[in-house]
Prior knowledge:
alpha/beta; globular; 31% helix
Amino acid sequence: MVEQLLNVQNLETHFKTPEGIVHAVNGVSFTLTEGETLGVVGESGCGKSVTMLSCLRLIACPPGKIVAGEAIFRGKDLLKMSSEEIRHVRGGQISMVFQDPMTSLNPVMTIGKQLAEPLMLHLNMTSEQARNRSIELLSLVGIPNAADRLKDYPHQYSGGMRQRVMIAMALSCNPQILIADEPTTALDVTIQAQIVDLVKRLRDELGMAIIWITHDLGVVASIAHRVMVMYGGYIIEEAEVKELYANPRHPYTLGLLGSLPQIHEQAHTKLFSIEGMPPVLYQKPTACPFAPRCTWVTEKCWKENPLLEPVAPGHRVACWVDTKSGSKR
């Protein structure tokens, strides 16, 4: 039986700003099982990264604050752990690859020293053991002449190589969960494909679970088993990846998929665009947060926020309209 690794329930995170309290994450609940890859998609500002940073308690406080919820990992609540306990979980059991490798790596420390640090901290390796393991890790992620590259600094690596170093650091302690926060955003298309293939290979070899945060539905299709679509700090649709692409049910998901270029479409086919801007939530919504931008909007959408409910096996949607039949719930 596949074991459940992470169970997040009713997670809420707020940020205090001069303009008011921003409700960034609003009661998010999801699970992750061993060996699974969960894709988390949505526009910038929808709460994807804040949700995962909250689970690892990496939200700066102030201005941020986790106000509710639980994140159960291996029977323990990450949100209630002491600072010492959560420090040993981060990097050791749950690792994170951040969006921009240039700002994530220390520019005045060699790559070798940055790779060795978590090995010595979490696995109590000697400096020689950590050096040998660092060479193995760089080779694992496809960096040639690994032993010679340990003494280099981040600026001596290309963007793709820096991201490979970040992945090597994240994998150094054999984590059970790897959280990848838009790891291919700043890279060109060829390098993006190489990074995705690398992560898929390492997932299959090491058996770890992955949470892949992105706004690129094309990448999600190639790597994820299950997809979670977020908007306004809520999960608005969740399904197996094939089911979501074949049978999207939320108007926002339809819009995201409609904005992807299709190679089989006739020339000059106009791409779909979602009008308007994502909301800045200074108050927790009492209505559907997508209503101002939705072409399916009804009177009920302005009065009540729909719950995430099943529409098919393993497929949940938060919408008052059945976009397949056009009927109202």
